[in-house]
Design goal:
By secondary structure, the protein is α/β, with parallel strands linked by helices. Helix content is 29%, strand content 23%. It has a single domain, classed as Vaccinia Virus protein VP39 (Rossmann fold, 3-Layer(aba) Sandwich), CATH 3.40.50. The protein binds S-adenosylmethionine (SAM). The site of S-adenosylmethionine (SAM) has 19 residues, from β2.
Length: 201
């Protein structure tokens, strides 16, 4: 039996009921720091499970060409409403696992925040394979391992940083940076770790 979280109606219900505790209402502070640092030159970026798109719009404002993907109609509607015509984000309503081959090797960056933990753990290997095929050689996977710890069930399903790094390493990624970020939002301090991995040629 597949988990409910594999289906868009599960997420759609949360959006329509206004129960979206993951939504910060603003860009993730750590991503804002990375975007402003100059260490990551603007390029093509895909944001998986983009939700209402705060992080997608952040990077678009910094000159990145951003494609934001989500399968919940209400998340997509919100992204369309909030989209800034001066720094537009391309918005795709689809299941990330159904992104076709035409998207392969198109991106310099893959950004994810609380998408990995939203995915049925049985699909984590598919997720890593998807990340590998979407990125160009040398492309960067930027995300948080969240929530670290122990709790039954999900979503969010617990995520152990070492396990994600190991999984991505099996899919031709190499760890470039990891950090318990000082600017994680207070409720997530110490239960999330920023991880940046590079896809090998
Ligand atoms: C926990 S929310 C995080 C949203 C956003 N990243 C944020 O931090 O506010 C997970 C999002 O991933 C989306 N999602 C989950 N599984 C998906 C899938 N297989 N394909 C596309 N979107 C998916 C959900 O609709 C939801 O918007």
């Amino acid at each position: 039996m597949t988990h409910d979280a594999n289906h868009s109606h599960y997420w759609q219900e949360s959006y329509t009921n206004g129960r979206i505790p993951w939504d910060l209402g603003h860009p993730t502070p750590t991503f804002a720091r990375l975007a402003a640092s100059g260490d990551y030159p603007p390029g093509q970026m895909i944001v998986l499970g983009a939700g209402r798109g705060h992080d997608a719009r952040l990077f678009a404002r910094h000159g990145f060409t951003v494609t934001a993907v989500d399968f919940a109609p209400e998340a997509v509607r919100a992204m369309q409403e909030l989209n800034d015509p001066a720094y537009p984000v391309d918005i795709l309503q689809t299941d990330i696992f159904e992104l076709g081959e035409e998207w392969n090797g198109r991106f310099d960056y893959l950004l994810e925040y609380t998408c990995f933990c939203a995915i049925d753990p049985a699909r984590r290997d598919d997720y890593a394979a998807l990340a590998a095929r979407l990125l160009k050689p040398d492309g960067l996977y930027i995300g948080f391992a969240f929530p670290i710890g122990k709790r039954p069930g999900g979503p969010p399903f617990v995520v152990q940083p070492d396990a994600v790094i190991e999984l991505l390493t099996e899919h031709r990624f190499k760890l470039q940076h990891r950090e318990f970020a000082f600017d994680s939002v207070p409720s997530r301090q110490n239960i999330e770790e920023l991880i940046i991995l590079q896809k090998q040629k």
